[in-house]
Amino acid sequence: MSADKFVKKSYDYIICGGGTAGLVLAARLSEDPNVSVGVLEAGGNRLNDPLIDGPNLFIQLWDKPEYDWCFKTVPQKGTENRVHGWVRGKVLGGSSAVNYNMFSMASRQDLDNWGELGNKGWSFNELAPYYRKFETYNPPSKILSSKINDKYIDPLLRGGDGPIQVSFCETDFQWQQEVWPPTFINAGYPEPKDPRSGSAIGGFNQLTTVDPKTTRRSYSARAYYEPNSGRPNLSVLTEALVAKIEFDKSGSGNATATGVQFIVNGATHTVKANKEVIVCGGVINSPQILELSGIGSASLLPKVRINVVVDNPNVGENLNDHSATGVSFQVKDDAPTAEVIFRSPEIAQQAMEAYLNHKAGPFTNAPTTSGFASLNIIDPNLSESEKHVKSLVSEYQKSHPNADPAGRDPILAKQILDPKEAITQVVMLSVGADITKAASPPAIFMHDAPGNWITLGVCSTRSFSRGSIHIESSDPTKHPVIDPAYYKHPLDLDLAARGILHIIKLANFEPLHSKLKLDENGNLILHPSFTNGLPKNLEEAKELAAANTVTEYHPIGTCAMLPKEKGGVVDNECKVYGTNNVRVVDASIFPTHVQGNIISLVYAVAEKAADLIKGKTASGANG
């Protein structure tokens, strides 16, 4: 569809962003043939692109403008003034098209926090039906089940007929998957339970968003858009950059959105919205769109020559990300890792042909080796853990009295002390990492150290540090300023350091330890980019964390769902304060962070939002 043809129609709902959440809403709202839906997506339609479809080809998409927004943060004081590259999908399907395909679950307390902060209807039990609604769980074959250790999965908690397919890889079982679960058991972890039960302590092979019938990535463009693309009441325009929402504010009341202005090939167009405008741009683009439209701080917007429509200084604030700190160890020559492919064009070509022609080989198996650890597992010797955590939180509150008007930090501190709650996600990637290259995400894994390597990572589950995303220009093509404020809060660095000391101990447990290469003194061999060696104490571990931390690509919070006086941008129906008919639906509305990979929660939130817009209650989630 051309832009001219698109704007000749008017739509009941205009969705700004055809990404993970936007396409869920487009599919669900257009189920009603009497409702018209128009979607504006800045990226292209790349359905059937093998680089997206291949479960383990995602690195090939990063830093390429045809797939990725190629965002960069400002230099981060907490990570040795490094700039961090932030991969965000600029393509139909958004970040669900370019992520690792890892699929995990928020804990019960993670979501109950949302209700406790004033968001009625958003607790764990109230969101559980929506997890089942979007998902189809595909159990492994008996052969794979005997290898993968999938016994923690409870099929009764899983969805059976949703659009998104989740599975374990059947075609390329790897040694990392075999050694991972027993290593955790030998290290004293409990046997894990299904994360859908509300807790996920333990080490396991987690599910991936891969359709086992086709061995292709299962993502929102494939699962929600493609089957419904022929609906006459659904129009999707790609390569269309949203410039701003247009408003009518004739009286003293709330502003009413009348349409959306967008740019295609340098030309500006406007499309009319009869009912609502729904912003689904993600944690970066959603606050940018609101600010470009005049919704934001009255002290910021005039500086970039934008008229204030709704004064809300909370827009773009509360940015919260999962940090990921990695330590790379050399493995024995008979333990293959991704370096084999990265360093040999011939082997890489063979692997690509195996995927394209036979749906086999290493490009079929997305990362699965994951786990969650509580504070009492990470550091059982921290005898006064409650006093320690509460002290760091209270000291920060005293020095930053206006940083947490919602009262989140005491809630999160209590959660960190709960033995059923994880303070870190532990992952193993079958490739070495040079974190000094943080500004370019694919370059992190394109190192030149000889041999085979793995990276053990500790990733935050709910960071206390909060930054911001704001425009510095009225030009919608100019990226906003991204400041995640990594390690601004001392508790984040403290927990990361304890996690590092823990994974070093974990590497000495069997059967993982037998796969690692040792030097002549019997010590683990560190990647040469780790110039100071392994840390011997907490302070040295903090130094390692500052030097070896990147994003886990899970930013949230910049249009937070909270009471406005407590930092909110949207209410518990996702409506933007000060407007009659604008909503935000994506990870930017998450009021607090949750453990693990957030894609599952984005789908669940979008499914629930679709019901809210339709006027349904949670009981309709099974329909």
TrEMBL record:
<keyword id="KW-0285">Flavoprotein</keyword>
<feature type="binding site">
    <location>
        <position position="91"/>
    </location>
    <ligand>
        <name>FAD</name>
    </ligand>
</feature>
<protein>
    <submittedName>
        <fullName>GMC oxidoreductase</fullName>
    </submittedName>
</protein>
<feature type="binding site">
    <location>
        <position position="242"/>
    </location>
    <ligand>
        <name>FAD</name>
    </ligand>
</feature>
<dbReference type="InterPro" id="IPR012132">
    <property type="entry name" value="GMC_OxRdtase"/>
</dbReference>
<dbReference type="GO" id="GO:0050660">
    <property type="term" value="F:flavin adenine dinucleotide binding"/>
</dbReference>
<dbReference type="InterPro" id="IPR036188">
    <property type="entry name" value="FAD/NAD-bd_sf"/>
</dbReference>
<dbReference type="GO" id="GO:0016614">
    <property type="term" value="F:oxidoreductase activity, acting on CH-OH group of donors"/>
</dbReference>
<dbReference type="InterPro" id="IPR000172">
    <property type="entry name" value="GMC_OxRdtase_N"/>
</dbReference>
<dbReference type="InterPro" id="IPR007867">
    <property type="entry name" value="GMC_OxRtase_C"/>
</dbReference>
<comment type="similarity">
    <text>Belongs to the GMC oxidoreductase family.</text>
</comment>
<dbReference type="Pfam" id="PF05199">
    <property type="entry name" value="GMC_oxred_C"/>
</dbReference>
<keyword id="KW-0274">FAD</keyword>
<feature type="domain" description="Glucose-methanol-choline oxidoreductase N-terminal">
    <location>
        <begin position="89"/>
        <end position="112"/>
    </location>
</feature>
<dbReference type="Pfam" id="PF00732">
    <property type="entry name" value="GMC_oxred_N"/>
</dbReference>
